[in-house]
């Protein structure tokens, strides 16, 4: 018999999050991102928090998430038990199969509340070892080489040892050279966001290898699995699939084409879906990077608790923001500090927002 306090109310609001600096990828530039904040409250007044970051690339918008969330939250209120996560996940998927970010927001909030009710951090409820969480990378968006170098020095001074460089436009080689010169000891990862042809990726691999790049993420368009495989077979470092591998169901299609898959709660739809995505990738012999969009700490906090399951971490989305209504898991020298979380995901709302 369930003895946990029941969910008595839910709510959501649209939040506009300004970035500290304009963030540019090969698909465009942004200075503000829109998220949906979700709250799930039990009869003792505990609140579970989550957030969703819809992305038009996946056919979602803040408006479409806003339309889906009342329907999803009605399902949560009907079930009532935040620990009934299998039933909740199934109901959410049935009600809004095309709204992964909205489902993720609700999933994170429910997991946060369930762990708060038992007085333990989410990673412990999942049986995970916080010391196995790898350090996060910090993303440097596309800019002039000098500006990227200056940003690199700032990030390195803040203690982050791993940098992820967005590429996919002209002057990519000059950008990588400037960053490497500014941070000769840093670990470098490169993300082309699908903007290169296979031949371009193979040719670029020569100078990427000279810069000692650790791995290359999504070098070719998402649907070009043949090209992705050709790149993987031709370059001297691992290749990762992000846009080519959205959910666990995509893993078998990319398993022979890449070495790493990028798992994001916003792509696959929540905590349970992400765990399945990670397990499926590992079952196919692939490494996993847990990643994110540009998101509030209300959602990044949930993803942090899955870091011990993964070989790589890229959870810097909230670090790029100028302000955020929520705080979450701290990063110390890039390291995910899960042991500082007392209960739930660690997400909390800031009074000054």
Descriptive account of the structure:
The chain has 353 residues and is α/β, with parallel strands linked by helices. It folds into 2 domains: 114 residues, Enolase-like, N-terminal domain (Enolase-like, domain 1, 2-Layer Sandwich), CATH 3.30.390; 226 residues, Alpha-Beta Barrel (TIM Barrel), CATH 3.20.20.120. Helix content is 36%, strand content 23%. It is built from 12 helices and 15 strands. The protein has an 8-stranded parallel sheet with strand order 4-5-6-7-8-9-10-11. Helix 2 packs antiparallel against helix 3, helix 3 crosses helix 12 and helix 5 packs parallel to helix 6. The protein starts with 6 loop residues before the first strand and ends with a strand.
Entry summary:
It is built from twelve helices and 15 strands. The protein has helices at about 60-80, 85-95, 100-120, 120-125, 145-155, 170-180, 200-210, 225-235, 250-255, 265-270, 270-285, 295-305; strands spanning about 5-25, 30-40, 45-50, 140, 160-165, 185-190, 215, 240, 260-265, 285-290, 310-315, 325, 330, 335, 350. The strands form four sheets. Strands 4-5-6-7-8-9-10-11 form an eight-stranded parallel beta sheet. The protein has a three-stranded antiparallel beta sheet with strand order 1-2-3. A two-stranded antiparallel sheet has the order 12-15.
Notable traits:
globular, Enolase-like, domain 1, eight-stranded parallel sheet, three-stranded antiparallel sheet, TIM Barrel, 15 strands, alpha/beta, 12 helices, single chain, 353 residues, 2 domains
Q: Order of strands side by side in the largest beta sheet? A: 4-5-6-7-8-9-10-11
- CATH topology of the largest domain, which one? TIM Barrel
Radius of gyration: 20 Å
Residue-averaged pLDDT:
96
Derived structural class: alpha/beta
Number of strands: 15
The number of distinct helices, counting runs of at least 4 residues, comes to 12
For the biggest sheet, the summary is:
8 strands, parallel
> Spans of 5+ residues with little confidence (pLDDT < 50)?
none
Shape: globular
Number of domains: 2
CATH architecture of the largest domain: Alpha-Beta Barrel
Q: CATH superfamily of the largest domain, called what?
A: Enolase-like C-terminal domain
Order of helices and strands: EEEHHHHEHEHEHEHEHEHHEHEEEEE
Oligomeric status of the shown chains?
single chain
Query: Which CATH first-tier class of the largest domain would you pick?
Result: Alpha Beta
Alpha carbon gap, first and last residue: 40 Å
Strand content: 15-25%
Q: Fraction of residues in helices? A: 25-40%
